[in-house]
Recover the amino acids of this structure.
C-alpha cells in the first residue's frame, strides 16, 4: 500500500496529517506537480482527473480524493475517530469539513492558481476571479473566528478532520498573503494549538 | 425535524432524492433564494454561510451541506446503503461523489452563477470564469462516459449518492446548455435509468 504524494502541496498534506494523527505508517511516493507528472498516462489510470493524492492498495486498486482516502482509513481503523462516531457527530464534522473546504481551502487554492499562473500550462488563469476568491477566503476567516468563541475545535469539542482541513488551508494561505488577523484571537489560539501537534510536521 | 429546501435549486434536490431512495418522509420548508431569504439573520443562525438545504432537528440543532445531511440519515438508517458499507466501498463512492461534485456539479453551478448574473446582488460574476467552468463541465462528461463503459453506476455495481449528484448536475446543466452528447451512449443509458427511478420526481 502506498500514497502518491506531493510534499509541498496543501491537499495531500491533509492526508499525511490525518494518518499521523491515526498513528498509521505509510509509504509515500513523491509526484512532481510542477513538471505535470500527475497528468501522465500512468497516473491517469490511477486517478482519471490526474490529481494528487492517490492511495494505491496492494492489489492495484486506487482511490483518489483526500476525503475519500481519509474515510477509507477511518472505516478500517475506527479507533481515535477523526470523523465522528454518532450520526450527529459525523454530520457536524462533515458540515464543517465541507464548509471549510468550499469557503476557505478551495478559495485559497483558486486565489493561488488564478493569480500566480503556477498551472497556466494546464488551465486558464483569470486574475480577477483569483482576487475575488482571495477576498472570499479572508471573509470566511471571520466565520471561523466567531465559531471558535464557544468551541475549542472547528466541529465542537473534539479535534477532527475539519481542523486538519482548516490548518492546511491557513498555512497554504500564506503564499497568497491570506493570514489570521491580529484581532482574531480565537483563531490564533486554535492555530497555535494545531501547530504544536506532532502531526503538523507530517 | 424539517429541511429548509428550495424546490428549483440543484443542491437541495440531492437531499430530496437521497431521502426518497431511503424511504424517509420529511417536512420541507421552502426558502426563496431569488429573494435572498436564505441570507436572513434567522437563516444565518441555522447555517453561518446562508446556504440551502439545512436540516433542523427537533431540539433546534441545525446541519448544513447536502453531503452532511445525507451522511446523518445514512448513519441513522443504514439499511439500503447509498454511501457504501465496507471501507473500500465507502471510499470508492466518496471518491466519485467528490469528483463529480468538483468537476461537474460545481462547474455547472459556477457557469450558471457567473454567466447568468442570477446572484449578482450577492457575488461578483466574472463571465470569462463562468465560460471556462462550463467548458470544464462538458469535458468531464467524457470522463463519466468512459467510466460507464464497464460500470453500471458511477461508483461501480451499486446505485449510490454519486449517481444522485451526477443526475442533479446533468439536469441542472440544461439551464446553461450543457447536455449529454448523442455519441455518449453509456451516459445516455445511465441517465435514462436514473430518470425512470421514482426518486427522480422528489
Amino acid at each position: 500500500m502506498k500514497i502518491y504524494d506531493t510534499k509541498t502541496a496543501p491537499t495531500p498534506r491533509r492526508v499525511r496529517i490525518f494518518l499521523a494523527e491515526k498513528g498509521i505508517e505509510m509509504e509515500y511516493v513523491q509526484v512532481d506537480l510542477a513538471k505535470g507528472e500527475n497528468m501522465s498516462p500512468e497516473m491517469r489510470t490511477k486517478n482519471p482527473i490526474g490529481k494528487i493524492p492517490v492511495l494505491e492498495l496492494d492489489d492495484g486498486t486506487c482511490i483518489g480524493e483526500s476525503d475519500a482516502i481519509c474515510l477509507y482509513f477511518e472505516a478500517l481503523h475506527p479507533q481515535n475517530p477523526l470523523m465522528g462516531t454518532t450520526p450527529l457527530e459525523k454530520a457536524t464534522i462533515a458540515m464543517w469539513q465541507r464548509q471549510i473546504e468550499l469557503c476557505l481551502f478551495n478559495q485559497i487554492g483558486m486565489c493561488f492558481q488564478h493569480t500566480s499562473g503556477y498551472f497556466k500550462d494546464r488551465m486558464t488563469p483569470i486574475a480577477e476571479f483569483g482576487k475575488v476568491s482571495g477576498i472570499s477566503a479572508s471573509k470566511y476567516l471571520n466565520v471561523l473566528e466567531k465559531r471558535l468563541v464557544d468551541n475549542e475545535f472547528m466541529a465542537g469539542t473534539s479535534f477532527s478532520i475539519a481542523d486538519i482541513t482548516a490548518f492546511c488551508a491557513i498555512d497554504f494561505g500564506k503564499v497568497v498573503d491570506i493570514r489570521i488577523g491580529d484581532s482574531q484571537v480565537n483563531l490564533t489560539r486554535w492555530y497555535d494549538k494545531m501547530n504544536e501537534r506532532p502531526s503538523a510536521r507530517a
Remarks:
- Residues 87-201 of chain A form a domain with the Glutathione S-transferase Yfyf (Class Pi); Chain A, domain 2 fold (CATH 1.20.1050.10).
- Chain A has two domains: 2-76, 87-201.
